[in-house]
Amino acid sequence: MRIDLDANATTPVLPEVLGAIQPFWLERYGNPSSAHMSGQRTRGAVEHARIAVASLLHCSPKEIVFTSGGTESDNLALSGILQPFLDRHEPAHLITTQIEHHAILFAAESLERRGIEVTYLAPDHNGVINPADVEAALRPHTKLVSVMLANNETGAIQPVGKIARIAKAHGAIVHTDAVQAASKLPLDLSGEFKNVDLLSISGHKIYAPQGTGALFVRQGVELAPLFHGGPHERQRRAGTENVPGIVGLGRAAELALAWLEGQDHQLVSKMPVAPIPGSQSPAELTARRNHFEQRLLALIPGACINCAGAPRISNTIHLRVDGIDAEALVIALDLQGISTSFGSACMSGTAEPSHVLVAMGLTPEQAHSSLRISLSRLTTDEEIERALEIIPAAVARLRKLSGSLLAANPV
Ligand code: PLP
Questions:
Q1: Atom of ligand 1 nearest to the CA of 346
Q2: How close are the terminal C-alpha atoms of the chain, in Å?
Q3: The pLDDT value given to residue 408
């Protein structure tokens, strides 16, 4: 059996999520916009899922727009707020960061090419954005501030609550990409994140199918749609809904809330939650990750953890072993049945060092020596113990190999 230590790239669909989805492929396939009974039954399921996602985020169901995933949610947020300024030829300024996922960075660059001013803030050496830097970057025409909640590579949690307070006081709209934070951290849009106006989530990071997601749009925030067509999703996202995907996202959101809040949590669907083989709570997952991390540091001489000084999501380890080519290590581990990652999933295969690590001040060599290990809720102690046998041995082999290559070809 392979050991999946790449949960930040994607997560499996939980059996209960699959069970909830299946009838919507086979029997309950009505179009939710149809007036007949089979359409209206499907509409009911979509609205039920909307309530479940809203419960996870502590917002109103009316504020949830279903999308095809994190990338679409991010693009809809940025373009939806800023395109109207371009259309009216009014100046507008966006503040974002150098550590965002490319779904934000490339969307920002596209807006920049069309005339939006963009500031890309740098993090500190722990990969964290300083709210004072956001404050200093604000201009009279700053219309949008977009800062991710948890970084997909390092796991570093950003002070989005504080940043949102500052930006809001200035009158800017606030977006956060919570794709890696959702289901790992409690997300309260009525409390800690009450100043956040837009928030992106993705289904396949929370044990729902790939190609599903949502954007939270706070009531009163005007958003220009990306797609033109029918009046779906309250005119904010045209196109017949991906009903099975939405139902899966809803069930995954319910399970995530139950996992975050404890098993006695009252589920929207009132359907029970079966225990899973891995971590039953965030505390259990954090303990597993911490044990794994400590053992890796003990077993691999010279290893360190990137962003160790930052608050981090409970599943991520960003391991650096100077002198080791992390891509070679990822391949060596893959051959032994372990999935890990070098950079983010969508950028693997490129020779460029990670933009996130470079922004934190790591040299390209240090960035190339960094490996992402990300646990899922399903990761077991047995898998971690097996990985603790394989990873240090693979590092030792690569070190030996590069030592003999160096001896054969001295520089
Ligand atoms: N934002 C972050 C932080 C991500 O990690 C990802 C995916 O890795 C995305 C956005 C894109 O999400 P999706 O794959 O659902 O398009």
A1: 8
A2: 42
A3: 61
319, β-bridge pairs: 305, 371
Q: What was the pLDDT predicted at 403?
A: 75
- Per-residue confidence (pLDDT) for residue 404, from 0 to 100: 63
59 is catalytic: no
Q: Please identify, by atom number, the ligand 1 atom nearest to the C-alpha of residue 202.
A: 15
Nearest to 375 by CA among 290, 269, 270: 290
Question: 45 is written with which tokens?
Answer: 């399921």
> How many separate helices (H) and strands (E) can be counted in the chain?
13, 12
Residues 342-384 have pLDDT tens digits of 865 444 455 689 999 999 999 999 999 999 999 999 999 999 9
The first and second tokens of residue 357, run together, are: 């690590």
Residue 350 CA to ligand 1 centre (angstroms):
18
User: Average pLDDT, whole number, for the chain?
Assistant: 94
134-162 exposure pattern, b = at least 16 Cβ within 10 A, e = fewer:
beebbeeebbbbbbbbbbbbbbbbbbbbb
Q: Which of 119, 122, 220 minimizes the C-alpha distance to 173?
A: 220
Catalytic residue among 59, 304, 307, 346: 346
On whether the pTM is more than 0.85, the answer is yes
Give the residue among 55, 31, 65 at the shortest CA–CA distance from 243. 31
Position 301 scores a pLDDT of: 95
- Taking the centre of ligand 1 as the mean of its atom positions, its distance from the CA of residue 197, in whole angstroms, is 19
**284: Cβ–Cβ under 8 A, 6 or more apart, which residues?**
none
Residue with tokens 């985020």: 57
pLDDT in tens, 80-127: 999 999 999 999 999 999 999 999 999 999 999 999 999 999 999 999
Q: What is the mean predicted confidence (pLDDT) over 183-198? A: 97
Quick one: which of 123, 221, 243 has its CA closest to 172? 221
Query: 287-299 pLDDT, tens per residue?
Result: 999 999 999 999 9
Residues with CB under 6 A from ligand 1: 69-71, 74, 101, 103, 148, 152, 177, 179-180, 202, 204, 213, 345
Q: Is the pLDDT of residue 279 over 70?
A: yes
CB 157 within 8 A of CB 149: yes
Q: Whole-angstrom Cα distance, residue 130 to residue 136?
A: 10
What single-letter amino acid sits at 2?
Answer: R
| C-alpha distance from residue 154 to each of 150, 186, 213, 312 (Å) | 8, 19, 22, 8
Pocket test for ligand 1, best of 8, 205, 347 (most atoms within 8 A of CB): 205
